Structures are given as C-alpha cells and as structure tokens.
Known about the structure:
Layout: H1 10-72, H2 78-82, H3 89-100, E1 104-110, E2 116-119, H4 135-139, E3 145-150, E4 164-173, E5 179-187, H5 188-278, H6 284-308, H7 313-316, H8 318-330, E6 335-339, H9 348-369, E7 373-380, E8 384-391, H10 407-418, E9 422-428, E10 432-440
Parallel strand pairs: 6-7
Antiparallel strand pairs: 1-2, 1-5, 3-4, 4-5, 7-8, 8-10, 9-10
Helix pairs in contact: 1-5, 5-6, 5-10, 8-9, 9-10
Amino acid sequence: MSKRPPRLSRREENQAAERSEVRAAVQRFLLTGLIALVVVAVPVGLWVRAQAAANALNNAVLLTQRLADFSLGPLLTEAVLDGVAGADRQLNERLEPRLADGALVRIKVWDASGRVIYSDLPMLVGRRFDLPSWAPDLLAGGQGRASLEAQNEVENQFESGTGDLVEVYVRTIAVDGQALVVEAYFDDADVRADQSSVLLGLIPTFLLSLGALQLAQLIPAIQLARRIQGHQSIRRKLLQHAIDASDLERQRIARDLHDEVIQDLAGLSYALEAEEMHSTPENRPLFAQAKAILQKNVSTLRSMSSELYPPDLDELGLPEALAQLAARVLEHGIEVKLQIPANCDLDRDRAAMFYRVAREVLANTVKHAHAGILELTLMQDDDRTILLIHDNGCGFDLSADAPDTHLGLRIMRDTIQVAGGSLEVRSWMGGGTSVMVTLDRQAPAWTR
C-alpha cells in the first residue's frame, strides 16, 4: 500500500506559490522576448536580404564595367562598328572562355540608335530595338544598372526560357570614341551565392546579439519579478492582518457584549421582574414596560454579538455559514432565496473571504437597501467559485463616492484582487444591487 506524500505546511505552500509566480513571470518575459526577437528579426532579415541583393548587383555592375572597359572597348574597331564580316573574331575569342563556363549567358553592344553592334549571337547583329528611357543618361556617362528578373522583352527571345538572369547595362567607349551600351546577362547563381554569403555573415551575428541582450536582461528581470512578488506578498500579509485584526476586534466586542453588557442587562431584567411582583398594582405596568424594553435590547445585543463573531468555518463549512447569515436576514422581514450546494471544496482562507463578503453585503442590505427579497447563490466548477448576491432594494449611484458604510466591502475587494479574484458591484437607483465575487479554486494560499 503506497504512502500518501506528507502535506506541506502553510508556509511551505506559500513559498512554493511565490516561486511558481516568479517562474511564471520569467516565462512570460522569455516568451515576450522571443516574440519580440521574431518581430524584429523578420523585417531586419528582409532588409539584410535586400541589401545583400543590392550589394551583389553592384558587384555585377563593377564586373561588367571592367569587362566593357578592358575587354570590349579596345576591340570595338571601326570595322566592327560597320559590320565588316570577320571583324568580330577577336571579340569572340576574348569572350569565348566566359561564355563557355556559363557565368556569362549573353552579351550585346548597342549604339545610340538602338542597333546591335555586336552580340555573341550573330543573328542579332544589325537588328534594332527600342532602348530603355534611361539609355541617353547612361551614354552620357551615367551609372550602370543591374536587375535580377526573368527576361520577357522582345529583344530577349533567346533568353526567355532561362529563368531569372542578372541583366546589367554599362557604358563603354569604342576605338573611334563613340559611346556605346553594353548589355550583359549573367547566371543568377553567383548573385544568389553573394546574397547568401552576406546573409549568413550578418544574420547569425544579429541573432546572437539579440539573444545575448535577452540573456543579459534575464537576471534583472528575475530580480524584478522577485521584488514585485515580495511587495505583493507584503501587501497580502498587510491586508490579511487588517482583516484578521478586524475579526479579532469583532470577537472582542462580541465577547465584551456577551460577558458584561448583556449579562448586566439580563440581571437587571430579572431584578425588574422581581420588583414587579412585589410592587403595587399601579406601578406594575411601568415595571412591565421597562422589562420589555430591556429584554428587547438584550435580544438585539445578542443578535449583534452573534453577527460580530465569525463562525468556525472548518466545523460548519461555507454553505452552512452562509445559511446562518441568511437566516438572520429573515428576522428583518426580508425574503431570502438561497441556492447553495451542500458541499463546497474550498480551503479555509478562500471560504473565509466569501463569508466576509457575504456578511458585509447582507449587513448593508439590512441597513440601507430597504429590500423585500434577497437572492444568494453560490456556484462552483472545476476552475472557480462564484458568490452572487442580489437584492431588489433602492440601490445607489455607483458614480458617486462610495459611502463610509461600504468601507468593509472596499477592503474586501482589494483583498480578493490581490488573491487573484474579482469583486464586482452593480447597482441602479430604484433597481436593486448585485455583488458578484469570483475566486480561482487554485489561487495561492494566503499567509496568515
């Protein structure tokens, strides 16, 4: 037969709950940091990718410019410009190795009129095509241009099936000094490789930097979470001490009333009764009236002392304690409708909070609501417990400052909020008042 694990003490439960809250806060911090990392990394990655592509295209422009200046320009003779047969032999020999390895896919040389002066495809030589709108600027000495895209223009009938190509336009000078446009097409593999190289060089460094920043903030975040938890724990204790002090004062007042004032008044009532029996007939009505007043006051004081002194919730249980509170409301002529389960799975602290709220609400209802009906409902499921109290009294204006008589309820609201629950008050002038208290069944236990 397996042994049940030993039950933790209240202090150990509180310490475990506080550690759990700190862990939860740190986990939320890490999750938020991870989300922020992704949110920042994605646009930065896209920006780096765009910059890497731009850098690779710039390199392609520089490579083509060197090719135009040192390999093509000196060989663009007047014979080549005039289309003399065989004049382009040296150009073909110079470009053949580059075309053979596949890096250079196509090359064309244009004049200012759009006529193809030279191409590695002889059938293009002599044909005319419309030059881009920015070609005059390039011929006048402007910067070269490069793009990475599929080639679908009329002039690209021989490149249209090759997928994405790097298209580069640069300026060159022929032997006779004429400015020409060199158009070269490169396989995109080199550009993609340059782009990937830049990405692989920057992105890991960037991510590691963000990760290091996140880790550097982790220790201060843990310390901050612990400090906040410490302040919350102190606030819980202060609120709990305030409520405990209130309960102790109620107990003291109830005890003093019962042991002194009520006993003295009861003794005086017996004395008046004895005097009534021995008095003259004309004085007996006066003694009877005084005795009746005393007995009424004794009954009122006993009821007050019973309300002041909280019941033993461990012995009675919350449902029975609430039923006893409701029974006292009946004595004031208010009809009470109860919906309370026979059993309620709550620890002592949370049961005490529900009881205190119910006591405050019912006391305010009796004193101020002028209600005819009061409904008290206690509901519980796997996750939470709800106490709902509604009366059909006169209500009050929630927008106005809460009266001093609601001070106890305001203290309970703060207490329940610190415990992870909520207390909501709704009231309408002439339409009654509703109070709903919600507490998580797994809320952290309080330090008493």
